[in-house]
UniProtKB/TrEMBL annotation:
Belongs to the nitroreductase family. FMN binds at residues 10-12, 40, 137-139. InterPro entries: NAD(P)H_nitroreductase, Nitroreductase, Nitroreductase-like, YdjA-like. CDD domains: YdjA-like. Binds 1 FMN per subunit. Its EC number is 1.-.-.-. It comes from the Bacteria. One of its GO terms (molecular function) is oxidoreductase activity. This is Putative NAD(P)H nitroreductase. The keyword NAD applies. Its cofactor is FMN. Keywords: Flavoprotein, FMN, NAD, NADP, Oxidoreductase. It comes from Nosocomiicoccus massiliensis.
Length: 189
């Protein structure tokens, strides 16, 4: 049993090829990996919103509504529109990993629950890598905008911790992984 291979092979994909969405079965396996993450007091503080194909339009419309309502120039609005179409809409599959407070488990602490969602997201990335699916974890104000949350049915007190994009890397844009050597980050006591 070795998990180090997908861990070492995972890298963030900036540009996705225009391909079909990943299969429902693959999405379900990735979410199965997510929900196995450790979570204190078994709060299971997560929900996963899957966006693929035509359903991405719903997100796009709400995101553009958010941009429209911001105090930005016409130029900036157009820039955001291009960015949204060229970067977000081309991703074959996006899963929003959402923090959702478990109302039946009052012992859950916000900080711990958010960390648990982060652990769930890492499980998703590693599982996807092991299946030959490329990915990236993205954040940004648009994902938690009121316009977007209400369009997708994300409750007010819920929080998008990550928008996880899945698909196939366009190798032309591949980035080199950069990490400080582990020796510099390790203190042996
Ligand atoms: C909480 C979090 C938020 C991130 N948000 C973004 C983002 O909005 N846009 C982006 O291009 N990458 C984002 N990333 C990905 C990082 O940029 C990426 O992990 C980093 O460059 C290291 O590259 P690697 O994932 O290939 O090791 C995010 C990563 C994390 C953990």
């Amino acid at each position: 049993m070795s998990v180090i291979e997908p861990i070492l092979n995972r890298k963030s994909t900036k540009i996705f090829k225009k391909t079909e969405p990943i299969s429902k079965e693959a999405v379900e396996t990735i979410i199965e990996a997510a929900i196995q993450a450790p979570n204190h007091h078994i709060t299971e503080p997560w929900k996963f919103f899957v966006m693929q194909g035509e359903n991405m339009q719903q997100f796009y419309d709400a995101a553009m509504e958010f941009q429209k309502n911001r105090d930005i120039s016409e130029e900036e609005f157009e820039r955001m529109k291009v960015k949204m179409i060229s970067k977000t809409m081309v991703a074959p599959t996006v899963i929003l990993a959402v923090y959702s407070k478990n109302k039946n488990k009052t012992r859950g602490k916000y900080e711990e629950d958010i960390l648990a969602v982060g652990a769930a997201i890492q499980n998703m990335l590693i599982q996807a890598t092991s299946m030959g699916i490329d990915s990236i974890w993205k954040t940004g104000p648009v994902y938690n905008a009121t316009e977007v949350k209400s369009a997708l049915g994300i409750e007010e007190d819920e929080e998008v911790v990550g928008a996880i994009f899945f698909g196939e890397n366009d190798n032309a844009k591949e980035l080199l992984r950069k990490r400080t050597d582990k020796q510099e980050k390790t203190i042996w006591l």
